[in-house]
Every structure is written in structure tokens, then in C-alpha cells.
Specification:
The structure is a single chain. Helices cover 36% and strands 12% of the residues. The protein is globular. The protein is an alpha/beta fold and 356 residues long. The protein has one domain: Alkaline Phosphatase, subunit A (3-Layer(aba) Sandwich). Helix 5 packs across helix 6 and helix 13 runs antiparallel to helix 14. It binds zinc ion. The site of zinc ion has 6 residues, from helix 13. Zinc ion binds next to helix 13.
Length: 356
């Protein structure tokens, strides 16, 4: 914990900086773009892992991720999910157990998916990934307008379309996405180092940066500005999948799991956040199956309409892997608001929260 100068420490509490201890409750909303429910609940897919067309260096990759037991396999892929969240939270979307997570937008690609999960309803007018400012109000924008929450919301994304999805200009929610560096005063040495390094580490993609940058920019803001609602949108999984690189897709998912664990470890060791913060993790769409795992979208990519959801937080009755419990992607927005003590359904015709 940061040590205050003696003089500051002696000032009455009312004079302390508003950023030191958030009143809580708080929410970390996290998405992993296009990570399939199949891998979340069963780990590496043998059809893809042992097929050289999808997996380069099969022997090494199998050593990292394979086990005949799906419960062991998924723990190798997502250790934080299958230890901390499975023990203390809930995981929805294992279709093998009768828990279906479904998309309602019918498009099954990113902008319609993020719009649905952030604004609480599908919009047929959102039908491309073009950089069009979102006409819909996301839960991030709505929360940022609620009394006591102004300036308490921040968003970070690897994909450069997030400033449009969140409608940064209208919403007033700061969005750092794509290849943006940081801005503003009081930034840490680590943030300035990220600014310097990001242009020197080439991304394989033109519109998506590597997730490590998104993660560390978000983490530094969490530590410094202490927002009540932080959204972190990791992107690599989808892009490695489109590239047909199964090993990179798996390794990216595993790395993101460790990043989420790092956020959670900090939260649980920090006054104001400890036992006062919810973690909500989901995805914007699924993917096809078999050789069609690389893509998602219309009926040619059957299965990409299925998603998953993980929730962890104070007082939640831990049920681990959910059975016979369906949810819709559009419910995520109201679920996030409800964890903050707010009712997003008062904002209009939006889906209600997942019953927790
Ligand atoms: Zn995609």
C-alpha cells in the first residue's frame, strides 16, 4: 500500500483524496473476444489439438494443455476459472449440463455482441464492425451518469472499435483501445513505459493490439484512479482463432486467465475493493465447431451463438459450474448494474439481470 506523507495522514478523513478508497461495491467487467464455451468447460479440443492443420508443434502444445480428463484439461487452460471462480463463484454456459448461454442479436460477431452485452438489448441496426458511434446507451455510460458514479467508470480494449461501441465522446467514459497510448496527469512510471514500448512491439493485427498492453494500462488505472466500474476487453483469442492458430488461441486464453487472477489478487488485497468487488467475465460470441472453429457468424458457423458467463463476488452463494441455468448475453448489462446497487432496467427496454 502507498504510504501517505505524515502531514497528509494527519488530516481529517474528509480531506483525503476521493480516489483512495472507493465506497463500493465495485465491478470488474472482463471480456475475452470469441473464446468458445467448448474450451471454457472442456479445455483443449482433441480434434483441433492433434491436427497439424490447426496446431503447430502438437507435441509441445499437448504437453501444456492435454489430459484425457476434461476437468483436468480445463484447469490447465484456465487455472483461475477452475480454482477460484469454480470454488467461490458461478460459471454459466456448459451446454452439456443444460446451461445454455445464448446471443439474441442473430449476428454472432463482435460489435453486435458487445452492443448487446453492454447496452442490454440486441439492435438490428448494429449490423457491422464499422467504426460508427453507438446510438445505444451502454451500462458504462448509464452508470457514469448516476449520482455518485461520475468519473467512476473506465474502459480498456485491445480492439480499436471500442471507443465507438462505448461512444466515448457522448458517454464521457474514457476508453483506451487499439493502439492508443495513455493521457492525463499523474500517470505512473509503468504507464509511461507502456507508452514507450507499445509502438515498439508490433501486433500481428492492424486493428487489435496485444492484450498485455490493454491489461497493464487497465491495471495501472485501477491502482491509480480507483474506478467503481472497470471494463477490460481482451481481444487476442478471436484474432488467433481467425488466423487458424490453435496453440496461440489456447496460450492466449491461459495468459488472460492469469491476468484476471492478477487483477483479482490486487482487488482482494486492497482496502475498499477487498470483499466489496464483483468480477463478471463473458464473451461477445462463440465460434463454429470442428474445422469451422476459426470463424463465427451466420448458420455456416453453427454454434457461434453460444456464450458463457463467470461471476465471482462477495456473498454470492457459490454454485460453481451451473446446471440447467440458462442466460442471455443481453442480461449482462443489468447484472453489472445490479452488482453496483443500481437498476439498469429503469433506463428503458432492456433485459433484466441474471438471477444471482
Ligand atoms: Zn471474430
Amino acid at each position: 500500500m502507498r504510504r501517505l506523507p505524515l502531514l497528509l495522514a494527519l488530516l481529517p478523513l474528509a480531506c483525503s483524496s476521493p480516489q483512495t478508497v472507493p465506497a463500493g461495491p465495485n465491478v470488474l467487467l472482463v471480456t475475452l473476444d470469441g473464446l468458445r464455451w467448448e474450451e471454457v468447460f472442456a479445455g483443449a479440443d482433441s480434434l483441433l489439438l492433434f491436427d497439424e492443420r490447426h496446431t503447430e508443434g502438437v507435441e509441445t502444445v499437448a504437453g501444456e494443455f492435454w489430459d484425457p480428463d476434461p476437468a483436468v484439461r480445463r484447469s490447465r487452460l484456465l487455472p483461475f476459472f477452475w480454482s477460484e471462480i469454480a470454488a467461490n463463484g458461478r460459471l454459466y454456459g456448459n451446454r452439456a449440463l443444460g446451461s445454455d448461454g445464448v446471443i439474441t442479436n442473430g449476428k454472432n460477431f463482435s460489435y453486435p455482441g458487445y452492443n448487446e452485452l453492454l447496452s442490454g438489448r440486441a439492435d438490428s441496426l448494429v449490423d457491422s464492425n464499422d467504426k460508427i458511434p453507438n446510438a445505444n446507451v451502454t451500462v458504462l455510460e448509464w452508470v457514469n451518469r448516476q449520482p455518485g458514479f461520475q468519473g467512476e467508470v473506465a474502459a480498456f480494449g485491445s480492439w480499436d472499435v471500442f471507443p465507438y461501441i462505448v461512444n466515448e465522446e457522448r458517454s464521457g467514459v474514457p476508453v483506451n483501445a487499439g493502439f492508443e497510448t495513455g493521457s492525463g496527469e499523474g500517470r505512473s512510471e509503468r504507464e509511461r513505459f507502456l507508452d514507450e514500448m507499445q509502438p515498439q512491439v508490433p501486433s500481428p493485427w492492424s486493428s487489435v493490439r496485444l492484450d498485455a498492453f490493454t491489461h497493464h494500462y487497465a491495471f495501472e488505472t485501477l491502482k491509480r484512479a480507483r474506478p467503481r466500474l472497470l471494463y477490460v476487453a481482451y481481444g487476442e483469442t478471436d484474432d488467433f482463432a481467425h488466423d487458424g492458430e490453435y496453440a496461440a488461441y489456447l496460450r492466449s486464453a491461459r495468459t488472460t486467465d492469469s491476468m484476471i487472477r492478477d487483477l483479482w489478487t490486487w482487488v482482494q488485497s486492497t482496502d475498499g475493493y477487498r470483499d466489496n468487488t464483483w468480477l463478471v467475465i463473458t464473451t461477445d460470441h462463440g465460434r463454429g465447431s470442428g474445422d469451422r472453429w476459426v470463424g463465427h457468424g451466420d448458420a455456416a458457423w453453427a454454434g457461434s451463438e453460444f456464450v458463457w458467463l463467470a461471476v465471482l463476488g462477495p456473498g454470492l452463494s457459490a454454485q460453481g459450474e451451473m446446471r440447467d441455468a440458462d442466460f442471455r448475453l443481453e442480461q449482462v448489462a443489468a447484472t453489472v448494474a445490479e452488482r453496483l446497487g443500481l437498476d439498469f432496467t429503469t433506463s428503458g427496454d432492456v433485459a433484466g439481470p441474471v438471477g444471482l
